[in-house]
Amino acid sequence: MKKVKILALHLGHGGIERAVITLANNLVKNKYDVEILSVYKLYDKIPFEVDKNVKITYLMDGSIALKTDIYKKCLKKLKLISLFKALFKDYKFNIFKLIKDTVLSIVNVINKRRLVIKNIKDSNDDVLISTRDYLNKIVGNNKKKNQLTIGWEHNHYHGNMKYANKIVNSVKKLDYFVLVSNDLKEFYSKELKDTKCKCVYIPNTLDFISKTVSNLKEKNLISVGRLSKEKGYLDLLEISKEIFKTNKDWTLNIIGDGSEREVLEKYIKDNNLSKYVKLLGRRDSNYINDLLKKSSIYLMTSYTESFGIVLIEAMNFGLPVIAFDSAEGAREIITKKNGYLIANRDKSKYIDKVNELINDYDLRVKLGTEGKKDSKNYDPELVCKKWIDLIK
Question: CATH class for domain 3-202?
Fold first, then answer.
């Protein structure tokens, strides 16, 4: 039985983490011996369902790393008030605990590289799959002669060549580089043409193909994602404000949590949208799937989106989808047959298309039916076969 190790930073909430677990689950079903090596352990309970035959190894506790990441983001964006609030929330006036955790954080940074290298050198895996740039480098520099090594990139470089060059340099010594979109595959293939590393397109996958779909009669709009600036949820609320002026019997459910929650709550309150918009917080996949089945239109307003798995999840339940074309991943998924892709972040056109779908049930069914067909391209068995063809 071939042994596959997938290296991840952590197994918390997030698209990369979900993709890692989905791949591990599907490889186990295909008789592979799979281990996930997670640098940090953030939670006692993993937020996604893991097959009992997937082995998970943690290298260190991640609670301090989680705090440190928040502080670093505040410092990077010069949000000193937010930094002070975060520090006060975590430590209040306990200076000794702050000093202790700071020292532990430094020790963790030093230790994590050493621990990952030791794990790789002590193992006898046939395949190593890395999901972060610094892990790519460690794998490339410490792999054994007959090991197959694969980098797996989920993020779009969004025109940031500094980031793109960092990724390119991290995978040069690997055998393959898996990209989740054709756009990324074409870009990195050019950047890596003079290296041994070959680029491969393998999309992310659905957890399952749903046998049931929404009847598209419920007067519910839905959006799922992290409440952060790049997801454009403030734009979604501005759009919703106009929609609900003429559609007072419809509602918008937003599932997710994040740094923008307070900003969004204030907008909802200040604009009297509490009756129409519900921020439901972070929810598990069963809750999300149930709500998708009770919704009629999926809305995305992201500025950037590397892949857009949430769009495919909505299409899996027969929902028509709408997004701005600034989201790269959406451009690869949405066609004129299954939804609307709005150019230039034109909110007026976005509002018009939402209203068009609200007022035309047959159009919702037409687009939703096509979307359901398209979602089958992301059947976990089909996508897993591409991975198996790569690693066999």
Answer: alpha beta
Taken in order 254, 259, 264, 266, the sign of the CA dihedral is positive
H or E, element range at 10:
none
Rg (CA), the chain: 22
Question: Is the separation of the CB atoms in 3 and 124 below 8 Å?
Answer: yes
CA-to-CA dists, residue 303 to 90, 312, 344, angstroms: 31, 18, 11
CB-based burial label for 115 (10 Å; 0-12, 13-18, 19+): middle
Domain range list for the chain: 3-202, 220-378
What is the pTM assigned to this prediction? 0.83
Q: What is the full per-residue pLDDT of the chain (392 aa) written as tens digits? A: 899 999 998 998 878 898 999 999 999 999 999 999 999 888 888 888 899 999 999 988 766 555 555 555 655 665 666 656 655 666 566 666 656 555 555 556 667 888 899 999 998 999 999 999 999 999 999 999 899 999 999 988 888 999 999 999 999 999 999 999 888 999 999 999 999 999 999 999 998 999 999 999 999 999 999 999 999 999 999 999 999 999 999 999 999 999 899 999 999 999 999 999 999 999 988 999 999 999 999 999 999 887 888 999 999 999 999 999 998 889 889 999 999 999 999 999 999 999 999 999 999 999 999 999 999 999 999 999 999 999 98
* Domains 3-202 and 220-378 equal at CATH topology level: yes
What CA–CA distance (Å, rounded) separates 206 from 19? 9
Q: CB under 8 Å to 390, separation ≥6 — which residues?
A: 150, 176, 178, 200, 202
> ∠110-116-119 over CA atoms, to 5°?
135
User: How far from 81 is each of 3, 68, 85, CA to CA, in Å?
Assistant: 48, 16, 6
In 3D space, the residue among 226, 272, 280, 293 whose CA is nearest the CA of residue 254 turns out to be: 280
Fold of 220-378: Rossmann fold (3.40.50)
Burial-class residue 238 by CB neighbours within 10 Å (0-12, 13-18, 19+): middle
Measured CA to CA in angstroms, residue 8 lies from 33, 37, 102, 332, 389 at distances of 17, 6, 23, 26, 22
Q: Please report where in the chains the tokens 């794998």 appear, as a residue.
A: 139
d(CA 285, CA 14): 12
